[in-house]
């Protein structure tokens, strides 16, 4: 019977083997899609963490600038407080 089949037709064992290969390829594709979805989710989480760290860095940089300005004001006040009353009155600096 297989001898009379047109070319291109497969025997039952060949068709079963091709079906198994097709099913295996589909399973691999599904697995690859699932991996891709997990990677996209992981990358998204990493970007969110990076954004949060960048926001925190900006806030800390702002706090540092504010504290440095405050420190300079306090140092200037300390220098002024160390001057005698008459130096402050005349505007003299040490």
Q: What keywords describe this structure?
A:
94 residues, mainly alpha
Quick recap:
The protein has 2 helices and no strands. The protein is mainly alpha-helical and 94 residues long. The protein has one domain (12-90).
Average pLDDT figure: 89
State the major sheet.
none
Task: Note the overall shape.
Answer: rod-shaped
What ranges have pLDDT less than 50 throughout 5 or more consecutive residues?
none
Write down the secondary-structure element order: HH
Q: What is the helix tally? A: 2
What's the number of structural domains? 1
What does this 3D model show about the protein?
The chain has helices spanning 12-82, 85-90. The protein is an all-alpha fold and 94 residues long. It has one domain. The longest helix has 71 residues, at 12-82.
SSE inventory with pairings:
Blueprint: H1 12-82, H2 85-90
């Amino acid at each position: 019977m297989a001898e009379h089949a047109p070319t291109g037709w497969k025997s039952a064992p060949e068709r079963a083997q091709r079906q198994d290969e097709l099913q295996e390829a589909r399973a691999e594709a599904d697995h690859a899609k699932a991996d891709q979805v997990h990677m996209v989710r992981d990358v998204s989480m990493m970007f969110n963490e990076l954004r949060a760290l960048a926001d925190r860095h900006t806030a800390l940089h702002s706090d540092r600038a504010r504290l440095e300005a405050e420190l300079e004001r306090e140092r200037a006040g300390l220098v002024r407080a160390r001057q005698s009353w008459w130096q402050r009155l005349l505007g003299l600096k040490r």
